[in-house]
Amino acid sequence: MELKEIPVKDIERSPFQQRKTFNESKLQALADNIAVNGIGLVQPIKVRLIGNGKYQLVAGERRLRATILAKKEWIHALVDDITDAQSAAQSLAENNHREGLDPISKAKGVVELYKLLLVEDLGEITTQEDIITRVNSVEAKLRTGYALNHKEQAFSRVSKKIGSSLSNQRHLLAGLTLTPEQQEIVVNLEYRKEVIESISAIKDEDIRDKVVVGLKEVAESFDTQLDVIRAIKADPEIANLLTVVPPKDVELTHEQILDMEQKVERARELEVEQEDYEASEQGKEQARLIKNWVAHTKLLEGTAHEPFCPKCGKDKTHLRWVCCNLQLAPDAGMLAKKAAQLHTNMVVADLLQDRLDYEDSKKEGAMKT
Questions:
Q1: Domain count of the chain?
Q2: 206: helix, coil or strand?
Q3: Which of 75, 90, 99, 137 is the least buried, fewest Cβ under 10 Å from its Cβ?
Q4: In sequence order, which residues have a C-beta less than 8 Å from that of residue 43 and are 6 or more positions away?
Q5: DSSP string, 317-338
Q6: Do 110 and 76 have their domain in common?
Q7: Which of 55, 83, 111 is the C-terminal boundary of a domain?
Q8: In a domain, 233, yes or no
Q9: E strands, 239-326, in order
């Protein structure tokens, strides 16, 4: 690698740059610093020579933009001799450690890097859908101790060049299974990758649309968003509540307030009854059955592409819930759904209570003025 001072006009933007927006105030602050102190105090960018005296940016998009904004004609750069795949990997690694890059853009960067690496290392041309499937498959097998076949071993070696764990890749890539319209909304609403992944697991397109659009309106915190999504997965009808809980800019009627208060009160009563039941011996036994059922269900969901259970080898379509010493009762699934519905009542009660609290605070503010 060689350090040079090169003209900014000879530097082309990287085609592997997934980051499209930059914080304007921070960019201007950096440009002001460069204008006053020169380029010497700024860390060199990284480029590669692409011929005819031209260079392509590898890392340092923000520094290059700020230098241009400061009306400087030259910039310090480290010139490296690297391939397309190596350039994409470095660009992706830099972006993953920068603030402001949304999970969908990061996921698209992972896909583009896989496409380059698979061609370079294995001579394979592949699609986004195939990459997502293979990441899920290999990650699940490694996580559960299932043996990889020869092709999966080669893919696993390539995956290590991405710069993030397979688990993290799986979380990110789940967002790309959303429709383009849904992807745009989750980016604009700034959902976290865990929330996006949870939304992507909702199979019904109509319900998923309701969640994408309405979730942020009723659940502002990260934990509450995940709670609402879990509740919807247990009882899809809950999705309708995303449009039932009145937005905060809508004035509530007296009847609406009474109805919401009654629902919250009833949910709290059920919560107390459930706590008493869970303390009993029967409740403890039911909790054990549910815990086992959920554990095995998650195991199977994590290897949904495989026809056999990775632990006992049984055909999943005829599985009797006997592997891993779980000894699940036939009605464990029903018990788990009932418990999830009770949890749903708590989530809904919290949403309604938040809305009522907001209404109270609004009235108090009006009285003070």
A1: 3
A2: helix
A3: 99
A4: 60, 63
A5: GG--S-GGG----TTHHHHHHH
A6: no
A7: 83
A8: no
A9: none
Contacts (Cβ under 8 Å, ≥6 apart) of 243: 210, 214
* 155-205: pLDDT as tens digits: 888 888 877 888 889 999 999 999 999 999 999 898 999 999 999 988 888
Mapped onto helix, strand or coil, the DSSP state of residue 284 is helix
The half-sphere exposure of 19 on its side-chain side, counting CA atoms within 13 A, is 22
pLDDT, tens digit, 9 for 90 and up, residues 109-152: 888 888 888 887 778 888 999 999 999 889 888 887 788 888 88
For residues 175 and 205, the answer to whether their CB atoms sit within 8 Å is no
How far CA 206 is from CA of 209, 239, 247, 340, in Å, comes to 5, 9, 20, 21
Same domain, 53 and 151: no
Give the DSSP H/E element, type plus range, for residue 50. Answer: strand 45-51
Residue type, 338: K
Both tokens assigned to 96: 């993953």
Question: What residues are paired with 6 via a beta bridge?
Answer: 75
Residues of the domain holding 45? 2-83
Q: Three-state DSSP class for 60?
A: coil
> What is the DSSP-derived secondary structure letter of residue 191?
-
Alpha helices in 46-165 (DSSP H): 61-69, 84-96, 103-122, 128-144, 150-159
The answer to whether position 222 is within a domain reads no
**In degrees rounded to 5, what are phi and psi of residue 287?**
-60, -35
Q: How far is Cα 246 from Cα 166, in angstroms, rounded to an integer?
A: 40
Residue 44 shares a structural domain with residue 117: no
* Dihedral of alpha carbons 164, 180, 299, 220, sign: positive
Q: Of 176, 206, 232, which marks where a domain is finished?
A: 176
Residue with tokens 């692409």: 50
Judged against a pLDDT cut of 50, whether residue 301 lies above it is answered with: yes
